[in-house]
Amino acid sequence: MTRKKRCCFLTLLLIIMLLSAGCSKKGTEKAGYQVYYTNAARSNLLTEQYKTEETNPMRLMGELLKQLKNPTSVQEHFSLIPETVEIMEYSLVGGQATITFNEAYRQVEPVSEILLRAGVVETVSQIRDVSTVVFHIGNEVLKNRAGEPVGAMTSSMFINNPVGINSYQYASLTLYFASQNGDKIVKEMRNVHYSSNTTLEKVLAEQLIKGPMNKQLKPILPSNLLVLSISVDKKTATIDLDKKFLEQVGLGVTPEVTIYGIVNSFCDVLNVDKVQFKVNGETDILFGGSLSLNGPFHRNSGIIESAESIGTVENEDGKEPLIAEPSIGL
Question: What's the whole-number mean pLDDT along residues 59-72?
């Protein structure tokens, strides 16, 4: 190969590498961007597709941030950003987007603030040059309710990712719900297929909130409970729930049953050693008047009621085991 041909070949190879690198992040320039909104109850994230010819990262960020306050489907979608909250400025340096809000941000209710944070981060993170997102309120970095800096955020930190039906994964879940008298937990096996765009910990939390399939067991969580975030670091799972977690009225179960129903399920399915609870970002809480959430909880086998001690119950089709058979969900 001559020197001239070699140079041409290397130039062509470099162009191919640059084009490949340019297509590595989601291909959003051609497919458009997903802008995040909320439903009327302000309990879930919803998306709308937004197409633009803009490719400059800073100008594109400005477009997307403006679009966050202007849903196209005004009858069904609502802005995550309250009218009183304004974006004062934004910047992008070294892959980190910094978005500065006015003081009204501090007045946003905790659950709405989590959704706002997730929606903004999910939207902005689609920009090719954005790796992390930081929020400021005026001259101060955003802090959680414990007074700790929230720090740099990525879309993977939030569980409210849109579900695209691309492929499915399968999991056999070991779930624990309350016994009939509410003072023990009982194992219920459940087989689920779930989108590869979600996480196993999210699926696990959703199935616990969904409650037992066997009517002889009791739920351990309110059906309208919101999970604000879930993370797994080494052998510790951390789950942040909204204040409905503290409302156990009508469930007829002990605080220990609720806590260890979650803990045992997480330890068995996620292979973790302990679970740390938060409520709206706080851990300095006495749950059910008896259990401090300050420290993590380890698996408790002593609170499990064995299948042999439960036996079967009568239904219209005859006898059925109290431990639910595996079932397909999601």
Answer: 94
Structure tokens at 297: 């909880």
Work out the widest C-alpha separation in the chain, in whole angstroms: 86
Chain Cα centroid distance, residue 109: 18
- In this predicted structure, the answer to whether residue 20 has a pLDDT above a threshold of 60 is no
- Tokens (6 digits) for 309: 């001690």
Q: Which of 201, 204, 251, 254 is nearest to 231 (CA)?
A: 201
| 131: Cβ contacts below 8 Å, ≥ 6 apart | 95, 96, 154
Q: Is the distance from CB of 133 to CB of 121 less than 8 angstroms?
A: yes
Amino acid at site 66: K
pTM: 0.52
Report the alpha-carbon angle 141-145-151, nearest 5. Answer: 35
pLDDT of residue 30: 60
Q: How far apart are CA 237 and CA 255, in angstroms?
A: 19
Query: Is the pLDDT assigned to residue 288 strictly greater than 70?
Result: yes
Tokens of 300: 């408790």
The per-residue pLDDT for range 145-155, each reduced to its tens digit, is 667 788 888 87
Using CB atoms within 10 Å of the CB of residue 270, give its burial: 0 to 12 exposed, 13 to 18 middle, 19+ buried: middle
Residue 249 banded pLDDT, cuts 50, 70, 90: low
Query: Residue 185 pairs with which residues in a beta bridge?
Result: 178, 304
Q: How many CB atoms lie within 10 A of CB 26?
A: 14
Residue 76 one-letter amino acid = E
Under 8 Å between Cβ of 80 and 116: yes
